[in-house]
């Protein structure tokens, strides 16, 4: 998926869902719940969020340490809508998956002067399409490694299972 491509679209009812997309739920059900998590295509745990008339999808576990993003609040920082990871409060833009942070100009000068900055894309986001009130996710198959990818690996999943058992 290129950075210019929109991640959310409504298709006309006469157009079939995009090839290689996966049904994740009924529109009204996701709106009512606000967010859902799904194992998409048997390989990727994805969080689908409804916010202010749009759907967004991203890897379910936070790129920092695997935090449960489905429990995160949605807030705006510097005009950009983010999900805030409940574990260590990292901010991730819903549209691009960028990690945002507040940089301090000069820590010795009080009061501190801060600016919002981007760490770049850290969380893999996926495309969401609505067709006939059904919601589909198309996985972002970009070959570029994104930090959240680690929390989708078999290695991570088996470590998680071991931790739950012990
Ligand atoms: S795991 Fe998400 S902020 Fe640390």
Automatic annotation (TrEMBL):
SUPFAM superfamilies, alphabetized: ISP domain
What is an example of a GO molecular function annotated in this UniProt entry? Answer: metal ion binding
**Record keywords:** 2Fe-2S, Acetylation, Iron, Iron-sulfur, Metal-binding, Phosphoprotein, Repeat
What the entry lists under CDD domains is as follows: Rieske
For this protein, the record's InterPro entries field holds: Rieske_2Fe-2S, Rieske_2Fe-2S_sf, Sol_Rieske_ferrdox_dom
Q: Which residues form a coiled coil?
A: none
What stretches pass through the bilayer?
none
Q: For the Rieske domain, which residue ranges apply?
A: 22-88
Q: Where is this region: Disordered?
A: 1-24
Superkingdom of this protein's organism = Eukaryota
| Pfam families cross-referenced by the UniProt entry | Rieske_4
Official protein name in the record? Rieske domain-containing protein
């Amino acid at each position: 998926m290129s950075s210019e491509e929109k991640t959310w679209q409504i298709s006309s009812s006469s157009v079939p869902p995009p090839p290689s997309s996966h049904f994740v739920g009924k529109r009204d059900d996701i709106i009512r719940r606000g967010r859902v998590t799904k194992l998409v295509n048997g390989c990727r745990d994805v969080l689908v969020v409804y916010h202010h008339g749009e759907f967004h999808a991203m890897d379910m576990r936070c790129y920092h340490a695997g935090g449960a993003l489905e429990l995160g609040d949605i807030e705006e920082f510097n005009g950009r809508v983010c999900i805030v990871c409940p574990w260590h409060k990292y901010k991730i833009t819903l549209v691009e998956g960028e990690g945002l942070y507040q940089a301090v100009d000069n820590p010795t000068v009080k009061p501190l002067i801060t600016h919002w900055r981007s760490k770049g894309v850290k969380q893999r986001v996926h495309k969401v399409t609505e067709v006939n009130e059904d919601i589909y996710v198309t996985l972002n198959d970009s070959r570029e490694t994104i930090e959240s990818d680690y929390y989708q690996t078999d290695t991570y999943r088996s470590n998680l299972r071991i931790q739950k058992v012990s």
